[in-house]
Amino acid sequence: MPTTNTTTSTTTPEPKNAAAWLTAPKTRPFRVAEAPMPVAGPDEVVVRTRAVALNPVDWYIQAMGIIVPAEGYPAVIGCDLAGDVISVGANATATFAPGDRVCGLAGTRGAGANHKSGAFQLYTKVDRAVLAKIPVSVSYAQAAVLPLGLSTAATAMFQKEAMALPLPVIGSTATTAVDAAGKKKVLLVWGGRTSVGSCAIQLAVAAGFDVATTASARNHAYCRSLGAAWAFDYRNPAIEDDIVAALKGRECVGVLDAWSRGSVAQCARVLLKLDENGSVGGGRKWVQTVMPSADMVDEEVPKGVEVGYAYGSTLANNEVGPATWGKWVPEALATGALQCKPDPEVVAQGLDGIQTACDTGAKDWGASSSPKLVVEIV
Ligand SMILES: NC(=O)c1ccc[n+]([C@@H]2O[C@H](COP(=O)([O-])OP(=O)(O)OC[C@H]3O[C@@H](n4cnc5c(N)ncnc54)[C@H](OP(=O)(O)O)[C@@H]3O)[C@@H](O)[C@H]2O)c1
């Protein structure tokens, strides 16, 4: 039999990156085109994106031209991603390896400096301080709902210049949040059904607090399933007195206003009433917003209450990133102490679908039970 000498090439083609580019301020649609292949810096990890979630900031950047400076265009935006690790910077090899399934917050610190490292691309470099492995039981679409919500909640709750609460502990063994009578202190999370609030409830429970929250009545069971002990309807005119009555005899460490759009003054009033009720203990009266600065809170806040501000990505620069993303998140995902909520709603596939998802999100944002929109990037 004649023999033929064939050679088979086993070389894998170099991966090529592509992004949904925001070409100029206030332009739509995103333009899907080639993008440079990211290279991991020492503290970075390159991830092949498999799912991205949408956040209000995405459609605000596109519609209003905020956050990205003129020199940042064309830009790649997007915060929330889940995917597979491709390459790992020298300082991240103890935690991450190629092939790991991860989720994380794109566009922070070094990785965010040029406004071309957002999540809306096939390959994204992510700071190791805001990245975590995900167990096989968690899908990419589920994991993608976490990054900005969790980061904003953690920044607001744990950073020293914000609420400075004790950090979460695996196994709910935290004992640092107990009052003089031996009862758990209480954190009020306003807006427990928001992405930020859903993570805040779970972080607060893990930090040892009892959680009171507000949501539409139909979401009270949802908030309780995340660990809230009390849920109140924010549309009920009697809500302030109802909260005060429920927390009689308990020490409230403050309010995390996870909505912060017209709700800050009300949170402050609740805190003042709790103080009259003897429920603020020796602590300060603190309403922690999720707005980056005072000029974004257009409300007359009653005197006697301090108001805090937070920018959701700053935890990458301090001890809160490693303590939450580095330590608590991977373990809590593995044990089920952290649920990926609100549930993802996959509305499109591929980078071409990001504009559709952005438009859908912008349309009814803030309506009751608004879904967490996800685009799968296969
Ligand atoms: N500082 C930062 O870096 C940063 C980062 C991310 C987000 N944020 C801000 O955080 C806030 C939440 O964002 P998100 O993405 O988490 O929101 P989201 O998940 O889109 O929130 C949707 C939910 O908001 C709830 N809601 C609407 N009006 C409310 C009110 N008056 N009181 C309480 N809850 C209300 C609704 O809950 P029901 O279904 O129960 O009615 C709705 O389901 C926004 O203001 C956003 O701009 C800030």
From TrEMBL:
Keyword line: Oxidoreductase
Pfam families in alphabetical order: ADH_N
Residue ranges constituting the Enoyl reductase (ER) domain according to the UniProt record: 26-338
UniProt KW Oxidoreductase keyword: yes
CDD domains xref list: enoyl_reductase_like
Transmembrane segments: none
Alphabetized GO MF terms: oxidoreductase activity, acting on NAD(P)H
Entries under SMART domains matching the protein: PKS_ER (SM00829)
Domain of life: Eukaryota
Stated family: Belongs to the zinc-containing alcohol dehydrogenase family.
Protein name (database record): Oxidoreductase
Lineage of the species this protein comes from: Eukaryota, Fungi, Dikarya, Ascomycota, Pezizomycotina
